[in-house]
Amino acid sequence: MTENIRVYNTLSNRKEEFYPLKAGEVTMYVCGPTVYDLIHIGNGRCYVAFDVIRRYLTYRGFEVKYVVNITDIDDKIIARSLEEGRPAEEIAEECTDAFFQDIDSLGVLRADVHPKATTEIDKIIAAVAKLVHMGLAYESDGDVYFSVDRAEDYGQLSGVEATEVIAGSRVDILDTKRNPKDFTLWKAAKPGEPSWESPWGPGRPGWHIECSVMSNTYLGPTIDIHGGGQDLIFPHHENEIQQSQGINGQEFVRYWLHNGFLNMGGEKMSKSLGNLATVRAVLEQYHPRVVRFYLMNTQYRKPIDYTREALDEAQKAYRRMFNAYFSLNRQIMLIGKGKRTAGDGSMTEEIEDARKRIVEAMDNDFNSREALGIIFEVVRSLQGNMTSLSLEGLNEAGDLFAEMDRVFGLFPQEEIIDCDALEEQIELREEFRAQKDWGRSDEIRDSLLEKGVHLKDGADGTEVEVELRPICC
Q: pTM value?
């Protein structure tokens, strides 16, 4: 079953057959947020993308152990702490809570473990000490650096030569280094900064070593998948390789997966450039599942151009998909209650073909865009044939939607509308219409319309279309 999955490995720059280290099990680590502010929609794209990958691997029969870390000590957190006159840990905790609220809203399942850097300090110090002992790192004035001159095959992931490291992002150039290319493992404390005791004096961990230690602690020395945004390839993931393989003496990651940028105004969305929209701000304008659909309607490695027009189009498309799913379930319910009669039509062959093609699309480096297009083919068939289908045919379609919800997380009917309460209102309105009490009938229709529920009276009874409105305040 699983031998047909192919993934694009950044390390080899090609698609490869996916074979985890241990048959039937997958270990996956994705770099989490540095919690100094709200996450933006570009960050959200990463967590949605790898949520879909994790869900799909589970759907295909793997047992997935998934870790997403929290970087809760960092220069940016300290800078905000000093700017606002608040403790760094208070800011980190506040922004961590906000992060979970935002990814929960986007339908991202929690990882099996969300370790925090500050709870792993002892392990980080031990890892740094081992690198020093091995001669791969050195201490200078309370700081500890990894010696890039001792690295094996530096640039294997990014293609950046060791001599080019100076031009990379988040690389400090300091006089205390033996070589300006070297990167920080441990930072000596400055007055007023959070710090921990270490063999080199009070200080705090560097960014790269945190992920190496947390990955090793919770998933082991060699993991199957390491993910993150393309901006992390260099220097973060490049440096993780050197640290981890230096510490453990074995391969660190078998498959490196990186999601594409979310661009705004022709540039990568980022806090440093100031061209961003936070997840919170976007959810004030669009329903969370619309945003989730928008983010996964592009294959995860491809860039997305963020525009209001693109989100509006996604909203229209997802509304069609959701309402087909909603109408399907409602039709099944009404037939079950004896209020509608089923037809004799079948969708067996179409459903089986759609399921097969969706799996083929997702097996091809998790092509969610192609898979969603196939679901829309089923949606179009349902919209034209709903009342002519047998109960068996309706249930077959319902089973497909339920399966795809396990992968894509797009059909939260219960979060959008209370179906039982809605049917009570529709039945009451039908009673008023039978009595020709148009006033009270219209009151119910208008009341539902205010909630985004549109009623359409037809020969087959009252149909419902749900308008998906923002739920974030």
A: 0.94
